[in-house]
Amino acid sequence: SGGAPSKKSVYKLLRKKEKIVIPQRTTFLCNGFKWGPEHSERTYQVHNLSSDMHEVQLPFILNPVTRHYRKLAFDLGGNYAIFGVDKKIPIFVNEENFFGHTLITGNVGTGKTVLQRLLSSSMLHLGHIVLVVDPKNDYQWQDGLKEECESLGKPFMHFHAGNPSTSVSYDVSANYVKDTDLSARIMSIISGTEGGEDPFLRIAEGLVTTAIGALKLGGTKPTIQNIYYAIRSKQDLIVTTRNALRGFYTYHLGNDWHLTVQVSQNLALADEIDKLKEYFYCNYFEDNSPKNLHGMDTVLECYKYISGDESHYYKITASLMPMLKRLSQTPMDILLSANDVANPNRNIVNSHGLFNSGGVLYISLDGLSDPATARDLSQLITSDIAAEAGSRYNTASDLSTVPRVSIFIDEAHQAVNMQLINLLAQGRAAKIALFISTQTISDFVSATSADTADRLTGLCNNYISTRVTDAKTQELVLTKVGQTNVSMNQVTYTTSASTKQSHTNFNGSISERKSTTMVSSIPQELLSMIPTLHFIACLQDGRKIVGQMPITVPGKSMRRSTTVVDMVMTSPYKLKLRRNLDVEEILSKSQKVG
């Protein structure tokens, strides 16, 4: 492992060498090798060695060096049978591969975040807009991207649910075409991935749509907080209806509408509602049918909801209110529902602006202290991004010219909803690449269903796995890498003797039989022994790669590589092995780019 030799990407450094032809849209992935049948053969042979490895003996003189590698192997854990069967070379991946989307699985502490740090920096250097949804707020990932943005002259924005004073605000309700777009975005948090056949949810979605229309009619922006206040109780909905009627009359009668309607604005709420309702039904209906006017449907829907039974109202909003309350209380009110007028000094971003301005938006969800709000935020932001992707289809005449976007979602099982699945299915044409990470496939099954988990894995053309112990995840890895023929040697020894013959008379024979058998390319038990910072990758281009991921660190934090002299003179317990990426070495080994 090691860090980059400078702030520049490996790609840019490699381009300086005229002898090496590297595609312009290619990025460095790891040091590893392409997996083939010969590696399976060697792996099974190494895996069958004795536990003390007495079959492999190294010269005693190498002990001062090998002791450090034994210590490193102990620290990283696992079994190197998969990764030591061939010489590692630099592995490059074409950018188009990643637009098939990437699924990353692996146990805690095996290097998933390290890999995402590398991939996100690579995408940023390729000119992508990068959006990171991180429930843990990984400081190394965040600081690395921030420094990359500074070196490239691109903006870095940080949304931090646990630190609102320094966080930007994210306006999730800024971009929508129809009122139903925004209501569906909100309801996706509680409707999940099954589409939602609960009639109360469908009625609640209609209520949210009505509230959005009523707020707009009354001259109020439909933010998450304003929607919550508009429908928090039936009394609040009555106030919302009154404001919508005032806006309706202002639109059709002008600012002096109260003179025409003959209503005083100092009336009590109930009396004013009655006056407004009376004028509405007397003047905007013909033959008992409403006229086709702006805002007519919204007002009628408001009357329908406030005229119903109050107990029924609370039933239809029972599943909706807790979620809206979480997203409207402090500090979420400032982070999700800020506006330029009330918060003139606050940096407010939205998906449309981000997709056009470029740079990085790093979203820290504070998932450990408030997992429910983190889950809601993750799904809401995912839905907003999906809506922005849809608007690209509607507004961009040539999608080949729009900025490319890479979205990294850590602990992706918290973000799964129908919008995420639709984004995986249709995001490629909108130039959006998703990198979703989770620990096990069972996380998806637990959060959604087995069928939805299968859909998620099926929609990702690239699959990368570090160490996994879950049986379902191991089965997925084995399915991806496939099977191969492995040679089997069978040796038979036979001897025979008889008491009826001379003691010098005996028979003996030796037979050897060689055959092949179809087995998994990689032994299943080795998947739970993959060393930390190592992975198995199945890429869209058909390659199966096993490799060791580099650790990206800021240039100012780089320390020199460990030398043989260091290893001879220093105890393994006082020395950490480092091997920085050497551009010249990469060039010498990279005769072609796959």
UniProtKB/TrEMBL annotation:
<feature type="domain" description="Type IV secretion system coupling protein TraD DNA-binding">
    <location>
        <begin position="358"/>
        <end position="534"/>
    </location>
</feature>
<protein>
    <submittedName>
        <fullName>Conjugal transfer protein TraD</fullName>
    </submittedName>
</protein>
<dbReference type="Pfam" id="PF01935">
    <property type="entry name" value="DUF87"/>
</dbReference>
<dbReference type="InterPro" id="IPR027417">
    <property type="entry name" value="P-loop_NTPase"/>
</dbReference>
<feature type="domain" description="Helicase HerA central">
    <location>
        <begin position="87"/>
        <end position="143"/>
    </location>
</feature>
<dbReference type="Pfam" id="PF10412">
    <property type="entry name" value="TrwB_AAD_bind"/>
</dbReference>
<dbReference type="InterPro" id="IPR051162">
    <property type="entry name" value="T4SS_component"/>
</dbReference>
<dbReference type="InterPro" id="IPR022458">
    <property type="entry name" value="Conjugative_coupling_TraG/TraD"/>
</dbReference>
<dbReference type="InterPro" id="IPR002789">
    <property type="entry name" value="HerA_central"/>
</dbReference>
<dbReference type="InterPro" id="IPR019476">
    <property type="entry name" value="T4SS_TraD_DNA-bd"/>
</dbReference>
